């Protein structure tokens, strides 16, 4: 017979349910997001932007990927406002439903050949809805995971929703590889095969909806609601008191997001499958290699959560960014070798930095912001970081290759953003283990940045950080 008290067993069961729900939900959400990015790199230039020509059409296709990022802050504002007022769980269900509906509708869109200019217009509108959904999704998922977790396991718990990104990429790349290599190769993929991965989203969303409805609300929000301590307009409070923290937190994310979107945003897929380019892999070869890279990214993201609980979020981040800096040029050297084994090695090496600079993010962000505006703070910082980093990274990289004829300029672009993120994370204070409850609001309000020397005992000016 178990000697563990019933209350402790119930808490452990609840934490496992939350972990499972956040992983499944974010995986489905990011599958939808990456299916679009992959299709943009492989097929959308031909299907929706063909009159612009091959080069401009590819730039427009990648621009459509980036446009959704511009609407992520809107999703973050809305989800943050209502997440801080009515709860985390309701926002998670809503964002998942919106993303699934948008993705499914893309699967039945007419192309430019049959609908003319209406086709790309509808495509962009649905991509904007995906951006709004993605902007609201992340904050709710990470807070559900971190706020449910024991203090000494927040890094690991926060890594669970982060796993949804490599899992979503794995699922998206695997699904596309199945279509291009087995079910609808060649012209069949162009004619109808590309639609299937989008339509599959409907089934996934139904599963994710019921899983997310089954989890308990965050205990931190339950305490806020019980004490009626909701902030009337969380966004205004956030920017009035913590605008600098939002900016620095956004810069922390920019370097990882830009580097990650070299693969998840479709740039490398398009570059390596260009029949006139220096590499010349097939679509299926590249998609399988990206799937392998996603597995490696998953492993290092999970490992980074464990490491972050042992040595702290900040130090884990710094290890990740230094690794990323060291691997950026080798990534492109190995890709340009046109050797398939070396391509797998490139993705494996690059995954170390990506994982260690992504896994600790949920715990780091959650511990930076006060309870009353935490949903708004983590969501908006993440959304702005995505704009500064990955939004137009594939388009910028494509333009640099077209302008210079090589990938060195792309590598320097990523080195610059990674260096900025390394400096930014060095400016935040590691607050591992801080009490996240609303009753500890005074301590949470101060000291998140290394140059903020205030303590909770001191009054907080109205124009404070």
Strand element count: 0
User: What's the story with the biggest beta sheet?
Assistant: none
Radius of gyration: 22 Å
Structural class, from helix and strand content? mainly alpha
Give the N-terminus to C-terminus distance in angstroms.
52 Å
Query: Tally the helices: what do you get?
Result: 20
Q: What quaternary form is this? A: single chain
Q: Ranges with pLDDT <50 over ≥5 residues?
A: none
* Order of secondary-structure elements: HHHHHHHHHHHHHHHHHHHH
- Write down the overall mean pLDDT: 86
Q: In percent, how much strand structure appears in the residues?
A: under 5%
Principal-axis shape equals: globular
Q: Which percent bin holds the helix content?
A: over 70%
Structural description of this entry:
It is a single chain. The chain is built from 20 helices and no strands. It is mainly α and 465 residues long. The radius of gyration is 22 Å and the shape is globular. It starts with 5 loop residues before the first helix and ends in a 21-residue tail after the last helix. The mean pLDDT is 86.
Topology, pairings included?
Elements: H1 6-48, H2 54-70, H3 72-86, H4 88-106, H5 112-115, H6 118-148, H7 154-183, H8 187-193, H9 195-213, H10 219-226, H11 234-264, H12 267-273, H13 283-311, H14 313-336, H15 340-356, H16 361-368, H17 374-388, H18 393-404, H19 408-426, H20 441-444
Helix pairs in contact: 1-2, 1-4, 1-6, 1-7, 1-9, 2-6, 2-18, 3-4, 3-6, 3-17, 4-6, 4-9, 6-7, 6-17, 7-13, 7-16, 11-17, 11-19, 13-14, 13-15, 14-15, 14-19, 16-17, 18-19
């Amino acid at each position: 017979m178990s000697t563990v008290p019933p209350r402790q067993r119930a808490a452990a069961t609840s934490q496992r349910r939350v972990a499972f729900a956040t992983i499944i939900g974010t995986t489905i959400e990011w599958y939808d997001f990456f299916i679009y990015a992959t299709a943009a790199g492989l097929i959308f230039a031909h299907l929706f932007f063909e009159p612009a020509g091959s080069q401009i059409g590819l730039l427009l296709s990648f621009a459509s990927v980036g446009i959704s990022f511009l609407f992520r802050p809107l999703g973050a504002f809305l989800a943050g406002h209502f997440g801080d007022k009515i709860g985390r769980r309701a926002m998670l269900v809503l964002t998942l439903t919106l993303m699934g509906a948008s993705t499914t509708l893309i699967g039945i869109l007419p192309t430019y050949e049959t609908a003319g200019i209406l086709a790309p217009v509808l495509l962009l509108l649905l991509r904007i809805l995906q951006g709004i959904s993605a902007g609201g999704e992340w904050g709710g998922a990470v807070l559900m995971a971190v706020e449910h977790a024991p203090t000494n396991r927040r890094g690991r718990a926060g890594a669970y929703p982060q796993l949804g990104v490599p899992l979503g990429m794995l699922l998206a790349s695997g699904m596309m590889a199945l279509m291009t290599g087995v079910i609808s190769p060649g012209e069949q993929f162009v004619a109808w095969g590309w639609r299937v991965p989008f339509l599959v989203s409907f089934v996934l969303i139904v599963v994710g909806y019921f899983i997310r409805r089954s989890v308990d609300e965050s205990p931190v929000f339950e305490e806020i609601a019980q004490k009626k301590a909701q902030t009337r307009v969380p966004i205004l409070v956030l920017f009035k008191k913590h605008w600098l923290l939002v900016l620095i937190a956004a810069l922390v994310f920019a370097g990882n997001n830009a580097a990650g979107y070299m693969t998840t945003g479709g740039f490398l897929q398009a570059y390596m499958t260009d029949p006139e380019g220096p590499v010349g892999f097939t679509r299926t070869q590249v998609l399988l290699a990206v799937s392998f890279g996603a597995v490696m990214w998953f492993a290092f993201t999970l490992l980074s959560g464990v490491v972050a609980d042992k040595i702290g979020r900040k130090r884990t981040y710094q290890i990740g960014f230094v690794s990323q800096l060291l691997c950026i040029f080798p990534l492109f050297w190995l890709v340009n070798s046109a050797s398939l084994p070396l391509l797998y090695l490139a993705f494996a090496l690059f995954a170390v930095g990506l994982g260690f600079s992504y896994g600790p993010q949920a715990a780091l962000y959650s511990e930076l912001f006060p309870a009353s505006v935490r949903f708004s703070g983590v969501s908006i910082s993440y959304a702005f970081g995505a704009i500064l980093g990955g939004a137009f990274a594939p388009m910028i990289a494509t333009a640099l290759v077209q302008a210079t004829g090589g990938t060195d300029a792309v590598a320097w672009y990523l080195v610059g953003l990674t260096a900025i993120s390394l400096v930014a994370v060095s400016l935040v204070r590691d607050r591992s283990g801080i009490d996240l409850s609303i009753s500890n609001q005074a301590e949470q309000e101060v000291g998140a940045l290394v140059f903020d020397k205030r303590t909770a005992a001191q009054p907080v000016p109205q124009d404070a950080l």
